[in-house]
Amino acid sequence: MAETSIDSLKAVLAQKRASAEAQGQAIRFLKASGASPSEVESTLNSLKAMKVEVEVLSKELNSRVSENGGGNRDAFRQGVVNALERRLFYIPSFKIYRGVAGLYDYGPPGCAVKSNVLGFWREHFVLVENMLEVDCPCVTPEVVLKASGHVDKFTDLMVKDEKTGTCYRADHLLKDFCKDKLEKDLTLPEEKAMEYKRVMATLDDLSAKELGSKLKEYGIVAPDTKNPLSDPYPFNLMFATSIGPSGLSPGYMRPETAQGIFVNFKDLYYYNGNKLPFAAAQIGQAFRNEISPRQGLLRVREFTLAEIEHFVDPDDKSHPKFKDVSNLEFFMYPRDEQKEAKPFKKLQLGDAVKKGIINNETLGYFMGRTYLFMTSLGIDKERLRFRQHMANEMAHYAADCWDAEIESSYGWIECVGIADRSAYDLRAHTEKSGVQLVAQEKFAEPREVEKLVITPSKKEVGLVFKGNQKKVIEALEVMKEAEAMEVKANLEAKGEVEFFVCTLGQSVTLTKNMVSISKEKKKEHQKVFTPSVIEPSFGIGRIIYCLFEHSFYTRPNKAGDEQCNVFKFPPLVAPIKCTVFPLIQKPEYEEVAKLISKALTRARISHKIDITGTSIGKRYARTDELGVPFAITVDSSNSVTVRERDSKDQVRVSVDEVAAVVKDVTDGDSTWADILSRYPLHSSSSSDE
Q1: Among the four 90, 293, 557, 617, which has the fewest Cβ within 10 Å?
Q2: How far is CA 93 from the centre of its chain?
Q3: Residues of 140-175 as b/e, b for ≥16 C-beta within 10 angstroms?
Q4: Pseudo-torsion of CA 517, 520, 524, 528, nearest 10°?
Q5: CA atoms lying within 13 Å on the CB side of residue 409
Q6: Which of 400, 259, 281, 384 is nearest to 330 (CA)?
Q7: Membrane-crossing residues (predicted)?
Q8: 338: exposed, middle or buried (C-beta count within 10 Å: 0-12, 13-18, 19+)?
Q9: Nearest to 569 by CA among 665, 672, 645
Q10: In the sheet that 132-133 helps form, which strands lie side by side, from edge to edge?
Q11: What does the pLDDT look like over 609-656, one tens digit per residue?
Q12: Average pLDDT, the chain
């Protein structure tokens, strides 16, 4: 058994389980057909023996998986986090006071990586796409977030440990339970596995009552104490505050940066010459009072968002530059494949838009640009996918949504959301503020157009639905033409109709006096409309953490008795581009090192000079762990060596040229292979740690 492979064990176990199930059916048949007690007992004993075999095989399989790397993800993650904290990439905030969950400080190398990622984001999106960048306050008046729906709807379902009062996010407990069972219980029956997968796929559909029932059904308790849990109830994730000393002007720390762009639409549209399409961008802090922060930088209470709001005519969502990305091929996970539990696969972006898998060209364009952004940072393209939202995940007004997910030791992590939000946000702020957030298109000649006119009666709707009046009216106003005409036909034929209100999660009965629906022909000299919004939203902290994991590896030192940590950051995001080392402590070498440092500073290349007497091998190892891609070693007064981190190859370059060589390769104008072809390879025993 010791030499049996894991795959063979799985096959044997499946066979034994099938035999046991067949034996169980045989017993039921014998009992139903009135077989003798001795015959039933003999068959039952065989079944018991089979179950013992199944149990033994199950334990052996679980043990074997553990021995062959079942805990590798946790061990790998711990290695990454230890290196990050030791080298001060990030640390828990307020550490000397035992810290606060969900708050972290970036140290010097972490700040540099973050600054480089944001700098490249600005270049890749704001500069290339001619976006309008804004910077809005973090403190937001309540009225703004009331209009956007955050005050009423920005909630998660929470449960409490009934004895200690510790709070947990209910859907996370259920998701973790199902995920744990699917990953670790290798003997899980197929029916049960499918059930757990269905639960995970429909988590967002579950009401508080349904979620509570599942927690009880699976016997889920508080993870830390094993105490019973309360029933789930909603908790608003925004940090509340008051603006001014009176306390009469309530506000919140913004949960996203997007609302600052929406409320400035009118001025931005004017600044852009009253032309569409255009995009506005914002980088800034956002705040969410997470119920139970965990997973390091992946789920925190204060974080950096980089968001784009691309405003476009809802009748024309083509993009003039779509052809630039249409041939890209990358992993996509359309909702149809998810429904059928099929694996994700590589699709060509142009084909996906053509076939209607992706709703429109503008959405597809930003997916392609996001893919290029991520892979340029150093994210492994084989561990990056774009997953389409299931119908139950999308807001009722959204046309299509995709998440860029990166695989990490925690599983697939949503790092970018790319959504076609339709015209919901601008309409909501128009209604609440009374300011028309619209665009105009002037026609060369007047056009006769047929317009759908939906006019709800606020009085009649309010009398029947009272507190739900607004939700019913909103649902009526956003009806598409086909649905609206069907409602009209039913009202005229029957006097009433069942109408589903997404925000209520149920159907309501409308009567003829509650809404007027008609089509009117008009001559128009211009089209006035509320623009649709395509919104790519980047969680910078999540991207950076996944980049840390994708860049981390270990390799043995020269003696082979120790593993050295390395972060293989591309020069684009490396916290320090190069280091300068005198080979030995010698005044003339130190002077050359200082001259090179000045040249690097003039070339605006971040670097670190180290004139300590530590061995060159140890200095290389220290900088490898910081992810520094190049090291300049001064071993003469007229030439130096340049070492590349991952290959450990070195070339010899003159002192006068070295700053230009490093700038050339860190700016991406040349590759390391180009440098190797231009300069002589240097071989030294000290080059290999």
Answers
A1: 557
A2: 23
A3: bebebbebbebbeebebbbbbbeeeebebbbbbbbe
A4: 0
A5: 23
A6: 384
A7: none
A8: middle
A9: 645
A10: 132-133, 278-287, 302-312, 532-539, 411-420, 400-408, 384-388, 329-333, 345-348
A11: 988 777 888 899 999 999 999 999 999 989 999 999 999 999 999 999
A12: 89
Q: Cα separation of 425 and 150, whole Å?
A: 12
Is 1's pLDDT higher than 60? no
| Prediction pTM value | 0.80
| Phi, psi values for residue 418, rounded to 5° | -125, 110
Q: Which helix (H) or strand (E) covers residue 499, if one does?
A: strand 496-501
CA proximity to 383, closest of 414, 405, 402, 410: 405
> CA-CA distance, 480 to 502, in Å (whole number)?
14
pLDDT digits (tens, 9 = 90+) for 312-334: 999 999 999 999 999 999 999 99
Mean pLDDT comparison of 6-20, 37-51, 668-682, highest-scoring range: 668-682
Cβ contacts of 390 within 8 Å, gap of 6 or more: 201, 204, 335, 338, 339
Structure-token pair, residue 460: 């009649």
Q: How confident is the model at residue 193 (pLDDT cuts 50, 70, 90)?
A: confident
* Whole-number pLDDT of residue 60: 67
Q: What is the DSSP letter of 408?
A: E
CA 129 to each of CA 49, 121, 365: distance values in angstroms, whole numbers, following the listed order: 69, 11, 11
- For 95, 129, 134, 540, 658, the CA distances from 307, given in Å and listed in that order, are 31, 14, 11, 10, 39
Which residue intervals of 66-189 are DSSP H helices? 72-86, 108-121, 142-148, 150-153, 170-184
Say how far apart CA 238 and CA 139 lie, in whole Å.
11
Tokens at residue 537, please? 């939203």
**What 8-state DSSP symbol labels residue 513?**
G
Average pLDDT over residues 323-352: 92
Residue 357 CA: distances (Å) to CA of 298, 348, 403: 29, 11, 14
Element (H, E) at 484: helix 481-494
Is the predicted pLDDT of residue 440 greater than 70, yes or no?
yes
Lowest mean pLDDT among 18-32, 107-121, 331-345, 641-655: 18-32
Do the beta carbons of residue 145 and residue 238 sit within 8 Å? yes
d(CA 251, CA 244): 10
| The token pair that represents 606 in the structure block | 């971040």
670: DSSP letter: S
Tokens in use for 627? Answer: 């992810």
pLDDT at 89: 96
232 backbone dihedrals φ, ψ, rounded to 5°: -65, 145
Q: Which amino acid is at 5?
A: S
Tell me: pLDDT of 361 over 70.
yes
Q: Express each pLDDT in 419-430 by its tens digit.
A: 999 999 999 999
Q: What is the pLDDT of residue 3?
A: 38
Report residue 685 as tokens: 């025993």
- Are 281 and 306 in contact by the 8 Å Cβ rule? The answer is yes
Give the C-alpha separation, 536 to 283, whole Å.
12
**Is 53 a residue whose pLDDT tops 50?**
yes
Using DSSP, state whether 548 is helix, strand or coil.
Answer: helix
Q: What is the pLDDT of residues 471-521, one digit of tens each?
A: 899 889 888 888 999 999 999 999 999 999 877 878 899 999 999 999 888
Pairing of strands 681-682, 278-287: unpaired
CA angle 422, 316, 270 (to 5 degrees): 75
Cα-based angle 37, 41, 42 (whole degrees, multiple of 5): 120
Average pLDDT value for residue range 451-456: 90
